[in-house]
């Protein structure tokens, strides 16, 4: 499953990449080009723009109007609609910046590329072969996991409410 995301959903594109999905993101591309990329590359168009959503549907492009106030809510909507996994499998993760699959890298190879305290406290590192960004499970990892936990809890709550109404 591949996505193309419009300029209003930059954070969501990074989340989906971390979750392992191939996501093309364009923050200043016109609607016609987004529809063309989605059509030619067989990608699902994600947008918050109702007019773009309608135009994509008219052109036979699979599109999804993303709603939700928070990233957790938006992720839940995608999980419900497309069965998006709300767990990061680092072996499948993509670079949030450029969409390339990240790969493990020996600690010694990142010594001069990360802060010295990071090098001392962490042992596992990943690198993007394209943009050379280095990743590790630092303090931001707790925030990432908390957002995913929120999304899972919200999803469970929504399923419970739907089940109660049946």
Can you characterise this structure?
The longest helix has 26 residues, at 140-165. The chain is α/β, with parallel strands linked by helices. It has a domain at 2-90: 3-Layer(aba) Sandwich (Rossmann fold), CATH 3.40.50. The chain has six helices and seven strands. Helix 4 crosses helix 6 (140-165). The mean pLDDT is 91. Strands 2-1-3-4 form a four-stranded parallel β-sheet, with helices on both faces. Helix content is 43%, strand content 14%. The protein starts with a strand and ends with a helix. The chain is globular, with a radius of gyration of 18 Å. It has helices at 10-18, 31-40, 50-58, 71-82, 116-121, 140-165; strands at 2-5, 22-25, 44-47, 63-65, 103-105, 125-127, 134-135.
Quick description:
Helix content is 43%, strand content 14%.
Question: In terms of topology, how is this protein built?
Answer:
Blueprint: E1 2-5, H1 10-18, E2 22-25, H2 31-40, E3 44-47, H3 50-58, E4 63-65, H4 71-82, E5 103-105, H5 116-121, E6 125-127, E7 134-135, H6 140-165
Parallel strand pairs: 1-2, 1-3, 3-4
Antiparallel strand pairs: 5-6, 6-7
């Amino acid at each position: 499953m591949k996505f193309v995301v419009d300029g209003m959903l930059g954070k969501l594109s990074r989340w989906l990449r971390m979750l392992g999905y191939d996501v093309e993101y364009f923050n200043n591309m016109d609607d016609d080009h987004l529809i063309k990329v989605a059509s030619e590359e067989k990608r699902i168009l994600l947008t918050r723009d109702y007019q773009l959503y309608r135009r994509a549907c008219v052109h036979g492009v699979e599109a999804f109007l993303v709603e939700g106030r928070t990233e957790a809510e938006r992720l839940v909507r995608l999980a419900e609609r497309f069965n998006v996994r709300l767990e990061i499998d680092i072996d499948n993760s993509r670079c949030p910046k450029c969409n390339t699959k990240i790969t493990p890298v020996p600690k010694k190879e990142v010594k001069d590329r990360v802060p010295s305290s990071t090098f001392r406290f962490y042992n596992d590192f990943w690198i993007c072969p394209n943009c050379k960004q280095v990743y590790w499970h630092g303090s931001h990892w707790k925030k990432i996991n908390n957002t995913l936990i929120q999304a899972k809890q919200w999803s469970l709550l929504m399923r419970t409410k739907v089940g109660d109404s049946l």
